[in-house]
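Hi V.,

Quick status before I head out on leave. The structure for the redesign project is tokenized and pasted below; the design run finished overnight.
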């Protein structure tokens, strides 16, 4: 299982939102085809065909838990939460 798959699994399960590393969540979104724009401390992700923009900010080395929940909601809403294995 790759780090991307592990991060996708952790985000999808929603059991450890406070323990998702910012860099891993950022890499996950980029691997799913999102483009990134950085404005100060805000990393804004968008993707063609996806209405919602995803905004991430660091909380130390972690992503903010409420923002992890927003990522999970977008993954579910747009059916992006599937790994290569399932």
């Amino acid at each position: 299982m790759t780090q991307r798959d592990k991060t996708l699994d952790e985000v999808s399960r929603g059991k450890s939102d406070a323990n998702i590393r910012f860099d891993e969540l950022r890499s996950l979104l980029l691997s799913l085809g999102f483009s990134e724009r950085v404005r100060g401390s805000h990393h804004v992700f968008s993707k063609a065909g996806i209405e919602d923009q995803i905004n991430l900010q660091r909380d130390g080395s972690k992503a903010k838990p409420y923002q992890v929940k927003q990522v999970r909601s977008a993954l579910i809403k747009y059916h992006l939460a599937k790994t290569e294995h399932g």
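Above is the designed sequence. The longest helix spans residues 65-77.

G. will cover questions while I'm gone.

Best,
W.
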